[in-house]
């Protein structure tokens, strides 16, 4: 049995194009599942409902592979998990169509190519991140996200906490969450007094 899956990232986007393509493929409306939710998680209501119905020998059909996940690596994980369950995956409009029910070997080649692309994507992302860190270091900038608390602010926050001010109030005063405040305090422990000051 074929199940159709359609997804758009926001409630403002239209599912119609995908629904029409699935219907033209012969999937009846009662076997089409659609989510209006980001692909950043596989914990999507209709997606999970569809997985609950799918049995070995069934196939999940989508217009494009990116409907199943947020990136190539996640889509490959979905394909792997479904294959382990004996459930096929088929796409209708990808430049490199996927059909894991194809026994001719083309399906394995397509998935292998996608795995290669996913690996290349990760390598390029790591290289771009490393280059950005090198450029930032060369310019004397702190790599990563800008810090929310400066050293002076952190010292003032620490002093306020020593005066038994509630952590929630201190965090609010500096415009950060209590969790962020605690994280910064843990990253930069208070300076220990020197031997000269303890004599």
Can you describe what's shown?
The chain has 8 helices and 4 strands, in the order βαβαβαβααααα. With 199 residues, it is an alpha/beta fold. Helix 3 (72-84) links the parallel strand 3 (59-62) and strand 4 (88-91). The longest helix is centred in the middle third of the chain and has 33 residues, at 106-138. The chain is elongated and about 70 Å long.
Write the layout of secondary structure elements.
Elements (H helix, E strand, L loop, with lengths): L1 E7 L7 H9 L7 E5 L8 H9 L5 E4 L9 H13 L3 E4 L14 H33 L12 H12 L4 H7 L4 H10 L7 H4 L1
Parallel strand pairs: 1-2, 1-3, 3-4
By DSSP, the count of extended strands is: 4
Helix content: 40-55%
Number of domains: 2
Largest sheet: 4 strands, parallel
CATH topology of the largest domain: Rossmann fold
The CATH superfamily name of the largest domain is Resolvase, N-terminal catalytic domain
Give the strand line-up of the largest sheet. 2-1-3-4
- Give the class from helix and strand content and strand pairing: alpha/beta
Task: Give the terminus-to-terminus CA distance.
Answer: 82 Å
Any idea what the shape is? elongated
Q: Would you tell me the overall average pLDDT? A: 80
Output the radius of gyration: 26 Å
Oligomer: single chain
CATH architectural label of the largest domain: 3-Layer(aba) Sandwich
Low-confidence runs: 191-199
Percent of residues in beta strands: 5-15%
């Amino acid at each position: 049995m074929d199940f159709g899956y359609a997804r758009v990232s926001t409630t403002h986007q239209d599912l119609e194009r995908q629904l029409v393509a699935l219907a033209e493929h012969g999937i009846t409306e009662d076997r089409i599942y659609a989510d209006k939710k980001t692909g950043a998680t596989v914990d999507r209501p209709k997606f999970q409902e569809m997985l609950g119905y799918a049995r070995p020998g069934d196939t999940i059909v989508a217009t494009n592979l990116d409907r199943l996940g947020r990136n190539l690596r996640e889509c490959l994980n979905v394909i792997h998990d479904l294959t382990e369950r004996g459930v096929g995956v088929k796409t209708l409009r990808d430049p490199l169509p996927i059909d894991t029910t194809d026994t001719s070997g083309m399906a394995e080649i397509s998935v292998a190519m996608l795995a290669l692309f996913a690996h290349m994507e990760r390598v390029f992302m790591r290289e771009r991140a490393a280059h950005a860190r090198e450029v930032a270091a060369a310019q004397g900038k702190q790599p990563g996200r800008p810090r929310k608390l400066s050293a002076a602010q952190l010292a003032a926050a620490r002093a306020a906490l020593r005066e038994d001010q509630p952590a929630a109030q201190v965090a609010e005063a500096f415009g950060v969450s209590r969790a962020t405040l605690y994280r910064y305090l843990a990253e930069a422990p208070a300076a220990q007094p020197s031997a000269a000051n303890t004599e």
